[in-house]
Prior knowledge:
Elements: H1 2-13, H2 16-35, H3 37-46, H4 55-64, E1 69-70, E2 82-85, E3 91-94
Parallel strand pairs: 1-3
Antiparallel strand pairs: 2-3
Protein name: Error-prone DNA polymerase
Organism: Vibrio parahaemolyticus
InterPro entries: DnaE2/DnaE/PolC
Amino acid sequence: RIFEQICGFGEYGFPESHSASFAVLAYCSAWLKYYYPAEFYTALLNSQPMGFYSPSQLVQDARRHGVEVLPICVNHSYYQHHLIQRPNGRLGVQLGFRLVKGFNEE
């Protein structure tokens, strides 16, 4: 009897539509991370707080993947993180003031 209940649950307990949409999201994220890494990390950092990865983990991962991440600078940073053109022609990430506790966009 218990086995029959488990089998019955298995037919609706695993939402295939959810897994399919998650697979598409994971594939798109991997594609963006590979082909547009600076843009990918800038967007993720600007989407914080997400509750999964901290900004410091994202910055470390960006650096491991060859993205130059510049620290907050009073002369070059905005509130949001943004892309910057580096002398080598590649894009980097300029960290923004949103990481400073107590700062807001106003």
